[in-house]
Amino acid sequence: MKNFRITSLCASLLAVAVGALSSFTHPLADRETRSVGSFTEISLGGSARVVVKQGSPQSVAVEGSKEDLADFETAVQGSKLRLAFRDQEGKMFNNKKHGPVTVYVTAPSLTALRVGGSGKMEVNGALQADAMALAVSGSGDLLVPQLQAGRLETAVSGSGDVTVGGTCPSNDIRISGSGKVRAHDLKTETSRARISGSGDAHVYASRTAEGTISGSGGMYVAGGAQLSSSTRGSGRVVKE
Fold first, then answer.
1. Averaged over 163-191, what is the pLDDT?
2. β pairing state of 30-34 and 59-64
3. What is the pLDDT averaged over residues 48-64?
4. Can you state the percent helix, strand and coil of the chain, rounding each to 5?
5. What phi, psi does 109 have (nearest 5°)?
6. Do residues 162 and 156 make contact, with C-beta atoms less than 8 angstroms apart?
7. Pfam families from the xrefs (predicted)?
8. What's the whole-model pTM score?
9. Which residue among 13, 19, 92, 209 is the one 20 to 30 A from 2 at the CA level?
10. What are the angstrom distances between the C-alpha of 100 and each of 43, 89, 94, 104, 181?
């Protein structure tokens, strides 16, 4: 009788453990190909992950659970591809929690990449453009390791990060909040940073680097650039 009770107890505990585990396990991912119009900008809202590749033909695919994919929007407005859960775009008002969704985007030409919220966008391979705008609003991340552009504008609002490498004659940076721009692997001739708050910009410049800082943020410059600065507060512009 004692052994029977122990066996029954073990079976009950095992059933509880399996049930608890299943409640935390996401369903197997489904993959959908989405048909959208042409675009040159990508805007991510929310918590998804986006993998971008420059190339042809254009394609958009999403991966996640069936339930999450049913709520996930991939729509082109003007020249912009908007990626977000519908409720996070204000179209549906609910507090439903979503599982992980990954978006795979291939596009022949891109001029702007933007992340809003806590999502992550990363470019796989080289990205070429006459002009490029990179922006993060919120706590998200944007990674562009191999950029070749004629000019670049980089903006961070909040606590997010932009990491960019490659080559570009100039980089114009704006930071508001505690975010970071990690551009020390982006070879530029001139870099400018305007920082409000505690954010940091790490850059490489061979000719000139100009920092305007209000607050405790910093501009850290690699390369042989001549530095110029205007600061209010404890911020600084220094070589690293």
1. 99
2. antiparallel
3. 98
4. 15, 60, 25
5. -140, 130
6. yes
7. DUF2807 (PF10988)
8. 0.86
9. 19
10. 18, 17, 18, 13, 26
